Amino acid sequence: MATSTNKLTNTAISKATAKETPYKLVDGAGMYLLIKPNGGKYWHLAYRFAGKQKTLALGVFPDVSLADARAKREAARKQLDNHIDPNEAKKEQKRQAILSAENSFKAIALEWMEKQPPKAEITATKNLYFLSMAFTGFGHKPITEVTAPDVLAVCRILENQNKLETAHRIKAKCGQVFRYAIATGRSTYDPTQALRGALKPIEAGHRAAITDPIEVAKLLTAINSYQGQFVTQCALKLAPLVFVRPGELRTALWQEIDLEAKEWRYNVSKTSTQHIVPLSRQAIAILTDLHQQTGHTIYVFPSVLTIKRPMSDNTINPALRRLGYGKDEMCGHGFRAMARTILEEVLEYPIEIIEQQLAHQVKDMHGRAYNRTKHLAKRHKMMQHWADYLDQLQGKNVIHADFGQQKPA
């Protein structure tokens, strides 16, 4: 390097103070530090290109140190040696950075979300939740540079936590974003297609349930936001309050329900024995509203196709999926595990009363099966307490310490 370069020192730069007019501290080879009256210190490189005198901004001191400024000077001079204008190269680099940001996986994913039909807020939140995991892994990358291993690496994290449904959902959501990018001319390939069979399959028959009260509160809030058929809305709202088997809920008959006595009496599908479900005030309110629409039919929850048949067995679970809950998170049968766990562990009810309400074949100390009216008064209190507890969760989204520990009567 020429002897006329590297004249400045950090000490000299630090001691330099502002004057009434701008002045320069020269380092050499065209680079200098411009000190302005406001005290700002700006690195510049003076050079000639195509016969014209030009200036390249190298940054502001101290954000750009003396060593950094010299490195930028050397890079610019190499460009000049290759007949490249540093200023034009800088503009192109900035343009490419903006273009890359606009076409990053994250930017296109957020754009795709905005283009989706209006959905319940919880569904949009779930979509963002799944995609945010992808954002962490490769959201910053231009979508054309995202590879199948990039997507698989994110999915593997969830797979290793045995969250198979979530891993599959992330892959599926990413696939939708890639296909949107292809449709809008910003990509030509969907790398998730190469991941077919790469993840562990979701186990069949798994009855997922949410049993953590905080998550239960979120689920109930999601259910209240459901925008589907009114009958389905009512079924979703009633399911956690009565926690019967999904088949028993959808085939409920109006003749079995006594709103005045606050009881629902029906034959248990598994044992063909009569069962009594005490109905809380909240359950009565739902059924009263529903009766205005379906009370003229046999079924409490008739099919949308014909009132001669009950609601399809393919209604509750898809509704939960529409709310953003995957197969490994919650299913219609899961309301039973939810109630059993919290009634015992949080509200501290005796297990035999809970089992009786679940219509399980509970036997007494002599080996005899409890009859349908056993503990009925206590079960009425328990079901009302349970409904009030669910209201408490929805109201504050947390467990109230005193309420959560309230002992059964």
Describe the structure.
By secondary structure, the protein is α+β, with helices and mostly antiparallel strands. It has 3 domains: 10-94, Double Stranded RNA Binding Domain, CATH 3.30.160; 105-195, Tyrosine recombinase, N-terminal domain (DNA polymerase, domain 1), CATH 1.10.150.130; 213-404, Orthogonal Bundle (hpI Integrase, Chain A). 48% of the residues lie in helices and 10% in strands. It contains 16 helices and 7 strands. The strands form 2 sheets. A 4-stranded antiparallel sheet has the order 1-2-3-4. It has a 3-stranded antiparallel sheet with strand order 5-6-7. A hairpin with a 2-residue loop joins strand 3 (41-49) and strand 4 (52-61). The longest helix has 21 residues, at 376-396. The radius of gyration is 34 Å and the shape is elongated. The N and C termini lie far apart (90 Å). Residues 364-368 and 396-409 have low confidence and may be disordered.
List keywords for this structure.
single chain; 409 residues; alpha+beta; Double Stranded RNA Binding Domain; DNA polymerase, domain 1; hpI Integrase, Chain A; 3 domains; four-stranded antiparallel beta sheet; three-stranded antiparallel beta sheet; 16 helices; 7 strands; 48% helix; 10% strand; elongated; disordered C terminus
SSE layout:
Elements: H1 10-15, E1 23-28, E2 31-35, E3 41-49, E4 52-61, H2 66-81, H3 86-102, H4 105-115, H5 121-138, H6 148-160, H7 164-183, H8 213-224, H9 230-242, H10 246-250, E5 257-258, E6 263-267, E7 274-278, H11 281-294, H12 316-322, H13 334-345, H14 351-357, H15 376-396, H16 401-404
Antiparallel strand pairs: 1-2, 2-3, 3-4, 5-6, 6-7
